[in-house]
Amino acid sequence: MTNRELVRKLKKKGIIFLGHDKKHDVYYNPATGGEARILRHWTQQVDTGTLKDILDDLGVTL
């Protein structure tokens, strides 16, 4: 899964874009209060461990 696909799926789950960090975009889950940073390299594949960490931080499943 690419970073772009991940962001699309997260937005469908109600995750909100907060803003830009240096190399990352910051996303927030209002339901759980979780926050995660996702690389802005849209075509790059997300590593399995990184994907798990992002989902855990946001408190969602895909």
Helix content: 25-40%
Task: Give the N-terminus to C-terminus distance in angstroms.
Answer: 12 Å
Largest sheet: 3 strands, antiparallel
Helix run count: 2
Order the strands across the largest sheet as they lie in space: 1-2-3
What structural class do you assign from the helix and strand content?
Answer: alpha+beta
Q: What is the chain-wise order of helices and strands?
A: HEEEH
Strand content: 25-35%
Rg over CA atoms, rounded to whole Å, is: 10 Å
Mean pLDDT: 96
Number of strands: 3
Low-confidence stretches: none
Please tell me what the overall shape is. globular
Structure report:
By secondary structure, this protein is of the alpha+beta class. It has helices at residues 3-12, 48-58; strands spanning 16-20, 24-29, 34-39. It has a three-stranded antiparallel sheet with strand order 1-2-3. A hairpin with a 4-residue loop joins strand 2 and strand 3 (34-39). The termini are close together.
How do you describe this structure in short?
With 62 residues, the protein is of the alpha+beta class. The protein is built from two helices and three strands; from the N terminus they run αβββα.
Layout of strands and helices, then pairs:
Elements (H helix, E strand, L loop, with lengths): L2 H10 L3 E5 L3 E6 L4 E6 L8 H11 L4
Antiparallel strand pairs: 1-2, 2-3
